[in-house]
Amino acid sequence: MYNKIILKDCITGIKELPDESINMVFADPPFNIGYKYNSYNDSRENEEYLKWCDEWISECVRVLKPNGAFYLAIGDEYAAELNILLKKNKLFFRNWIIWYYTFGQNCKKKFNRTHTHIHYFVKNSKNFVFNTDSVRVPSMRQLKYKDKRANSKGKVPDDVWQMSRVCGTFKERLGNHPCQMPEEVLERIIKVSTSPGDLVLDPFCGSGTTSAVCKKLNRDFITYEIDEKYYENAKKRIENITLQKEKTNER
User: I want to staple 142 with a disulfide (CB 3.0 to 4.6 A). Which of 33, 45, 72, 150 is the partner?
Assistant: First the structure.
């Protein structure tokens, strides 16, 4: 069951998982803003969408280990509502991360969209995994002021992350999914909240970014996809990473 993409509705699939079996959840659900997916209606009525979100969130919380972390990426339209749903499901709030990206979506009748919200919650407010040293970045004290008091390892990243979207010309771009998440974002999240061998759940496989990063970082994963085309392309992505790792190990 683990380390493969499952062609199945995520709620149906997660209900088959045992309680408290997952170390971390990362969810990047449809934003309900009219994206043109192959097999999903992204224009649901407000109450229907929130009821659906509450259902899959509650299942994710059930399977999350007591010291596990839950990350949820969402757009402006439902950021506040889903933050409340996470609290309703008895998770504890840690950060409201803003992923700020260059090459934002061009808008004609409102300000251009150049960010996504990432909610970071944990199941236990006092017992959770946070591998600080795995995600440190150089601080201004180090780079600009050459301050000897600065931590030589760098600092914990701020809660605003400037990382580019995966644009059409990027080598990382698969070209088959309208909302591909960059590996850089997932790498930071997975490194800080899991250790090698831990199990990560992604309810919405999409282009397979979570699975790809888990594969590269030696984490186990389980993810679901309802669209056969997205499923096949994501599966090929994981197979290519496996082949690359095998070639590297042979050297």
Answer: 150
